[in-house]
Specification:
With 463 residues, this protein is mainly α. The protein has two domains: 173 residues, no CATH class; 279 residues, no CATH class. It contains 19 helices and no strands. Helix 3 crosses helix 6 and helix 14 runs antiparallel to helix 15. The longest helix is centred in the first third of the chain and has 35 residues. It is globular and about 65 Å long.
């Protein structure tokens, strides 16, 4: 079930909000959220609801045992058991067929693949539960004694399938006691509406263009570059829009989820880009992989090793294909180069050149990200630079650039802080009553586009 689908917006969500409002206390409201979350997941993954329930019970039991024996060897064994179970689930469902395919291609074997479908959101909820048991082990969080409360945290539908990656310590107090106000509900609705607008009015249109490009037999260098820019915009507005919707829904239900994006395309270094893009994932790898390995407080060789491990894992987390691993390795290498010497060079350059450098690298990286395996990487990157004798311009490129050019320009502007700044200026001079009217109008426009349009995918369902 998509947040940007009519079923969610006008059937599921209104019923949940009504039941939630009628629930008498936080405990009852948690029950409503837990039941709604299981129904939400069941709608897309009927069988794998059992996986969610198993994950909740497993980490609930492990955390209680870890806290009881904190400081003892038993606690460490329990932590390892919890991590192995979580990574085992993630590894089996996400990487088994990838490894079988790799072995077959290298050794020429014909080992049959499992064909097991990937559970939606498994990359997100396994990371959340692992951070919980690790934090209990470290003494940064108390083990949750109530299973239903623990399950509510694991299954919470606003952030279940696409993040942000919410740690237990972020919402522990709100799971036990939270306050609701009309102001929070209004802020949540506005944030949700903005996210829905980003998804439906921008990401979907960019997605249509990328699909037109893929289906076209009249490729050219220009077409490849416009595709690369459009896809970079699509994935940003798709994922950041979903994060906005999740944060808005959380606010409506009394939770304050962490931010996940902060205008990454205005960055002036790759280091800065990754401080602004998918921030909760970057923070997770920093706190639970990079720092435990020693971070940068070790020898230079081990420091470089730590960066390499984090970025290979980051690439693999996004998908079980070699192009995702290559994508992660690319950023790992660039970050190492920036930290060793390029960062000092960039600091001396005018901001516009630093900005061009980042955009060039990021656009290329997302071509790698969206390629169909390593052969697709070679083909798509080659197309950007005219490999194979493809023409500089084609009729299809000109036609589609005319059709989508204005939308692409508006998307580029929308990826900067300019719209937020303009909104702030207009808000200062406008009556407060105009804001809910504008939000309602945005929801109506998005609804019309959802009903009339058939192209409404969500990219991160792949991961």
């Amino acid at each position: 079930m998509l947040f940007s689908g009519a079923t969610f917006l006008y059937a599921f969500l209104p019923v949940v909000l009504l039941l939630y409002a009628c629930a008498p206390g936080v405990k009852a409201k948690n029950y409503v959220l837990l039941l709604a979350s299981l129904v939400f997941y069941f709608f897309g993954e009927p069988v794998y609801v059992l996986l969610l329930i198993f994950s909740s019970i497993s980490d609930w039991l492990h955390s209680i045992y870890i806290e009881k024996h904190r400081g003892e060897k038993k606690a460490k064994i329990a932590l390892i058991s919890s991590i192995v179970i979580n990574l085992g689930m993630l590894g089996f469902f996400k990487y088994t067929d990838f490894l079988i395919g790799t072995v077959n291609s290298i050794l020429g074997t014909a080992i049959p693949k499992t064909g097991v479908p990937l559970p939606i959101g498994i990359s997100f909820f396994t990371f959340q539960t692992m951070s919980y048991t690790i934090d209990v082990y470290r003494g940064r969080a108390h083990a949750q004694r109530d299973l239903s409360t623990m399950a509510t945290f694991v299954c919470l539908f606003p952030q279940l399938i696409a993040g942000p990656i919410v740690r237990y310590v972020d919402v522990a107090a709100e799971l036990e006691e939270r306050h609701h106000s009309l102001e929070d509900v209004a802020l949540g609705i506005r944030r949700f509406a903005f996210g829905l607008g980003k998804k439906v009015m921008i990401a979907n249109i960019m997605g249509e263009f990328t699909q037109v490009f893929r289906d076209s037999s009249d490729k050219s260098v220009l077409f490849f570059w416009v595709y690369a820019i459009a896809y970079s915009l699509q994935i940003y507005f798709d994922f950041s829009g979903y994060s906005d919707m999740a944060i808005g829904l959380g606010r409506i239900f009394g939770f304050k989820f962490p931010e996940n994006f902060n205008y990454p395309y205005i960055s002036k270094s790759i280091t800065e880009f990754w401080r602004r893009w998918h921030m909760t994932l970057g923070g997770w790898f920093r706190d639970y992989v990079y720092i435990p390995l020693g971070g940068n407080r070790t020898t230079k060789l081990k420091w470089l090793r730590n960066i390499a491990i984090v970025w290979i894992l980051t690439g693999a987390w996004h998908g079980a294909e070699w192009n995702f691993v290559l994508w992660g390795v690319l950023f790992g290498v660039l970050l190492i180069i920036e930290k060793l010497w390029l960062g000092k060079v960039l600091d001396k350059l005018p901001g516009v050149f630093r900005h061009i450098y980042v955009l060039f690298v990021v656009v290329l990286s997302f071509v790698i990200f969206n390629a169909q395996g390593l052969s697709g990487v070679v083909s798509d990157i080659g197309g950007l630079f005219g490999a194979g004798g493809i023409p500089l311009v084609s009729a299809a490129a000109v036609y589609n650039l005319r059709s989508y050019g204005v939308a692409i320009v508006l998307a580029v502007i929308g990826a900067t802080p300019l719209p937020k700044w303009l909104y702030g200026k207009l808000h200062e001079g406008a009556k407060v009553a105009l804001e809910p009217l504008a939000t309602a109008a945005l929801l109506i426009v998005c609804t019309a586009l959802i009903i009339n349009g058939s192209f409404n995918p969500f990219l991160y369902f792949r991961f």
